[in-house]
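agent> Task received from the user: take the single chain below, predict its 3D structure, and emit structure tokens. No templates, no multimer pairing.
agent> Plan: (1) validate residues, (2) run structure prediction, (3) serialize to tokens, (4) report one or two observations.
agent> Step 1 OK, no nonstandard residues flagged.
tool_call: predict_structure(input=
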Amino acid sequence: MKHKIYIVWLAMMAVVLPMQASSMSQADALYSQGNYAQAAEHYQTILSTGNSSADLYYNLGNTYYRMGKIADAIIHYERALRLDSGHEDAKHNLAFVQNLTVDKIDPIGSIFLVDWWKYIYRLAMPDVWAYCSVALFISCLIGVILYVFGRQMWLRKTGFAVGIACLCFAIITACCGSSRQAELTDTSVAIVYIPTVTIKSSPDNSGNDLFILHEGTKVFIKSSVGEWSEIKTEDGNTGWLPTSSIAVI
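)
tool_result: status=success, residues=249
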């Protein structure tokens, strides 16, 4: 039965993968021809099948930029960088498009250790970290077996050292995988999606006007009440805005 399922899966992949490659080629061709709206539809169709990649989001960001949709372009460049923080083209284009936005916000500096930790866990996807963690845990068990059952002192010492080291690294890689997964599923980062929005002091229209944000500005969602969301900007200012005025990255 398992063999039959495997054969069916291979047959499906043999059909689906060429179709996806064909759709991507069609989208790229439409983009090259200047048919940006149709290219965006093709890229979105590929995403709707559950297949996403940094390059796909990057291409879609370029398409929306050409269409003059700055917020959409920023959202998709950000999504590309969420999958691949080292995507240099996405970084460059994101910085370029952000310079076109009205709000010029200087982010609050972050702690070095936090930046270092982000750099480490972004080196791989969650499943890769999981495989590493399992492999290290198995190595730890082998070390324990050598320590418990080894007849020679050097073998027991080696088993002990290997077991401790592998256990430590297994914990670290598990934490890396957990942090990477949390980042990929984070829904607290959003982009202002409408031309202008007034930030209120409370979650209703009667609240005091605090400041105004414009299309393309990144915000962090702190909480939600009904149709309102409490947000914080990159420079630390907080307030409330209609949830419909932002789009989650």
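agent> Step 4: summary for the user.
The longest strand covers residues 218-225.
agent> Done.
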